[in-house]
Amino acid sequence: MPRLIIKNKHITRLLYAMIVFLPAILIAGVQIINSSSANAWDTWMLIYHTNNGVNHFGSNLPEPQFCTPEVGENEEKSCEFIVSDTIMLREGFDFWGWATTREAVEPEYYPGDTLVAHSYQTDLYAVWSHELTFDLNGGEGEIKPQYCQPGSAVYGAVEEELTEADYKCDIVIQSNTPTRDDYFFLGWGLESTSPEATTHPGEKYTIAETTTLYAIWAPVYSVVFNLNDKTGASDVLTCHPEDSIYGSCDITIPDAVPTRDGYGFLGWAIINDTTAPVFYPGNVLNFGGAGRGEVMNGPARRAAKNATKAATSTHIDGRSLMLYAVWKEDTPIPVPDTGIMTTDGDKTGMINNVGVYVAVPTALLVCVWFVKRATTKKVNFTKKKR
Question: H/E/C letters for each residue in 70-97?
Fold first, then answer.
């Protein structure tokens, strides 16, 4: 039969050890638990949610931030965080900022802002918008981008379940317009070479993703009227297409006739110092058109000329036309010296002038009367008696 005394010694020693070390183990366990609980509640967190986006580095979201809360005067705990400066990216969207709810359409915080938390965990969700940018396409001016946020269905939804309508939002096009020398601003188009404008200032425009609009410019045509009177004076009339860069417009030569002392106006010529005008007041000059832009040539030119032969207007190639006034020097009609007084100093001249206008016609009438009488008087030829 085995002896159990040795085993009993080990059990006795184990029992003594448990009696001695158990309180220490219990105290240490309590401290560990308390330490874990204190760490969970004394370190607060700021957590970011991409809301279907990714950042520049391809990760899902900025790293969480941690803060040890402080107790204020009212014994309320709070913690300050500096919002991450990471700029998120999402195809078709522009990153707008951060909000504390997933469905927000306007941000509450922007990168670099200070966020004061009053709870153990704060969640921020990326707010996405569509950006509408403007390309001046050769023009000048300050046209700032515009933004709009699509409906709340986009936020927090599964990307594959969204339709095109869920991404759409409206923007009222700003009233600021660019300028460009010798061109007229028609509006905004989707391509730099668009012949017509898609939208205009003040109109509502719908976009479903970040979009760029291009300024559409129509050429300005001009006629310069050079009075050609040695004074250098001239007038300018302009026109431009209204709907398309390939449209046409008319300039009517004014009906008002210019004047010049000692000269008579004959018309307008396209060559200076000529005596043969080619255009006259009231003529209509047509610019542009034919779907060719600014200059027409080849078959298009011949077709346009044939089409305008029977028309009242004349088609002009090019962007501007200089017309020169054609003058003819007046030839004065000689006036006989009748002695008409031009000043108050010659009374005799007035009398002589009256005498001329009275005596000459009277004498002519008397002469006519005598001639007529002489030709009608009967003559009797009788034989004289001896």
Answer: EECCCCCEEEEEECCCCCEEECCEEEEE
